[in-house]
Design brief:
This protein is an all-alpha fold. It has a domain of about 45 residues. The longest helix has about 35 residues.
Length: about 60
């Protein structure tokens, strides 16, 4: 029983390590970081735009 479980775990780990390369891991980490930065900048830009529009409508136009 133990040999079957160990064999199955070895097969799974071999399959995973052969199909996932360090370059792919680096690419995924880079995409996650880039997406996070893009979301932050979008959030900041939308907040600034809303603030400018509110101030313009109140008559306090500042650029």
């Amino acid at each position: 029983m133990t040999n079957e479980v160990t064999g199955a775990l070895n097969t799974i780990s071999t399959t995973l390590t052969s199909s996932i390369s360090p370059a792919q891991i680096a690419m995924v980490v880079g995409l996650v970081l880039a997406s996070g930065i893009a979301l932050f900048l979008t959030w900041f830009g939308i907040r600034k735009l809303i603030s400018v529009v509110k101030n313009a409508l109140k008559g306090k136009l500042k650029v």
